[in-house]
Amino acid sequence: MPELPEVETVARGLDESLSGRTITDVDVYWERSIGAPNPATFADRLVGQTITDVRRRGKWIVIKLESGDALLVHLRMTGQLLVEAAGTSDGDYTRVAVRLDNGNRLRFSDMRKFGRLVLTEDAGEVLGDLGPEPLGEDFTVERFRRMLAQRRGRIKSLLLNQRFLAGLGNIYVNEALWQARIHPLRAANSLSSVEVERLYGTIRSVLRAAIEAGGTTLDNGNFKKADGESGAFVSQLQVYDREGELCDCCEAPIERITVGQRGTYFCPCCQEAEPRDR
DNA sequence: AAAGCACCCTGTACGC
DNA sequence: TGCGTACAGGGTGCTT
Question: A168: which nucleotide lies closest, measuring CA to C1'?
Answer without folding.
Answer: C10
